[in-house]
Write a structure and sequence with these properties.
Layout: H1 4-19, H2 24-30, H3 37-44, H4 52-62, H5 66-69, H6 83-87, H7 92-105, H8 116-125
Length: 137
């Protein structure tokens, strides 16, 4: 069964690809096989998990901000994550690199500009429920 987040993410990925006017096969050709049509199709159907690195790379290919590909529905829940505590987890380095990447891509160097959609990704990296992720904005 496909969860709501994966389904929403898939719809946004499909919309970004179609906005470029590409079929799945054309995307595969454009990227020289970096993104296989069958794999991207599975991302779009919400059947396959997408790593942060692949999401960022796909956003580059589509010429959009990675955060623009993420579903916005989680922002209504007021996701809060203590980034200092998160940095101390086993995934702390990955989270630090993710934050650095999104801030660089936005050409902003202010951590207070982390969006709710970014927090949702971090919560998923920490295997935390969006409803229970706690800390400070």
């Amino acid at each position: 069964m496909v969860d709501r987040f994966s389904m929403s993410l898939g719809l946004r990925l499909r919309a970004a690809r179609r906005q470029r006017g590409w079929s799945l096969g054309e995307l595969e050709s454009y990227t020289g096989g970096e993104f296989k049509a069958s794999v991207v199709g599975a991302y779009e159907r919400g059947e396959r998990a997408l790593s942060v690195q692949r999401l960022v790379r796909l956003a580059e290919v589509y010429a959009v901000a990675p955060a623009d590909l993420l579903p916005a529905g989680n922002s209504e829940r007021g996701v809060l994550i203590d980034l200092d505590m998160a940095a101390e987890t086993k995934d702390g380095d990955l989270i630090d690199r993710y934050l650095a990447a999104i801030l660089f891509l936005r050409r902003q160097g202010r951590p207070d500009e982390v969006r709710d959609s970014d927090k949702a990704v971090i919560a998923s990296l920490l295997d935390a429920s969006v409803d229970t992720a706690a800390g400070s904005d």
